[in-house]
Here is the input.
Amino acid sequence: MKQREQWGSRMGLILAMAGNAIGLGNFLRFPVQAAENGGGAFMIPYFISLIILGIPLMWVEWGIGRYGGSLGHGTAPGMFDALWKNRAAKYIGILGVFLPLVVVIYYTYLCSWTLAFSVFALLGSYPNNVDPSAAMPASEYLKPYQNYLFDYIGASSGGLWLTPEPVAYIFFLVTLILGLWILWRGVSGGIEILNKFAIPALFIMGFILFIKVLSITSPVNPEVNAVSGLAFLWEPDFSGLLSSKVWLAAAGQIFFTLSLGLGAVMTYASYVKRDEDIALDGLTTASLNEFAEVVFGSTIAITSAVVFFGADGASEIAKGGAFKLGFISMPAIFTHMAGGQFFGFLWFLLLFFAGLTSVVALAQPVVAFFEDEFDWSRRKSVTILGIFFFLSAHLPMFLNGALDEMDFWAGTFGLVILALVEMIIFFWIFGAENAWEEITRGAHIKIPRLFFYIMKYVTPTFLVVILIAWTYEQLPGVLAKEDPAVWATRIFLILLLTAFLIAVKLAWKRRGQ
Here is the structure.
């Protein structure tokens, strides 16, 4: 067995894991979910989901990853095969390579938007022909900024094909090349160095924006300030606690915010030393992510929207989703904010760092798969994958609807399936006591024994409930789509999954197994 890479330092490991978890969803998706699902009351199911779903899954993925890494496996196919001596294990495990790979295909393009918009903010190129003090609905006020985004990504026509501006293509290439260069440099020489710089910088920028938002007032009514925005988000609507929709939204947000069920955490953990304290490290990673989400993510975007557009306008923006909040309302706000060019640059640069660290983390599983199972060099793996990423990214870039379809199957539905499989294989097939020993070995903190029972019984049950609910609520609507973009995307995903299943077969045949 060849010597595998390892993290250069414990701090680098923790920051890299935090970089994997902290992404666009912390700053865009979370405030939208909170605003739409009970405000402050949303945090009750959110933190319950964190305790019985997020933290247990985080520890499980760290445990599986460290165990697999000690046997020379950096991805789920090899890890599952080691935990469960069944011919099907390695094929089921391919989800841990396939899902993050699909997410990277469109996430790299989304990440490039943030880099572009940070430059646009610095140059002051956003529309500036709307009077912020004029009495008009938020939808009317934001129309020029919506057109600005739609023109950039080529969605103004609303047809089958997207025609992004040439500058969008350039920023995509810059983002892709930067991500590949970091991957090329390796785990400690590239990924760790990126996160040692990006995560502290992200927190510094978040703090600056947090302070700025607390000082802004409405251009229409000076009495409306940040306190009004915080009240809008955090004023609790406890009636929502009786809604299954709110609980599912909270559980779903925990999945997205911690990047669970995607295989990236397991891959990062495979480079951990055999007796590393994964109990404390996993908890620290989750804590850094939660601080970024709950403090910065809940304050900057939604609070600004309430101050500038009022509670009704902010509600309308929240219903429009994360893209409307981040790429339409925020440019409008920065355009009419004192020092807006600088703060707009910081906002989108913060998002870019959050996105880039996640892109690299999600690309690493497939790099590790080819390194560990085919004995390819890192440079060969990254080069071939770079060509694949470049070609496949044209699907979400130019085909209207492809991005949403890929996001549902890989970034929503698939991750719950993989998370459930992880729990079953680790705690029920490998053995609950064996799993618990793996998680707690070398720990500097004592995990309460209660979590043993949560991980064995409660977390899998919660995952089954989520899977059934999402299948019932979302799957019929997705399957009902019949347009060419959807079918083209599905065919692409089926072919890609088939290729990886064949790759697993070839890899194990190569070993004589």
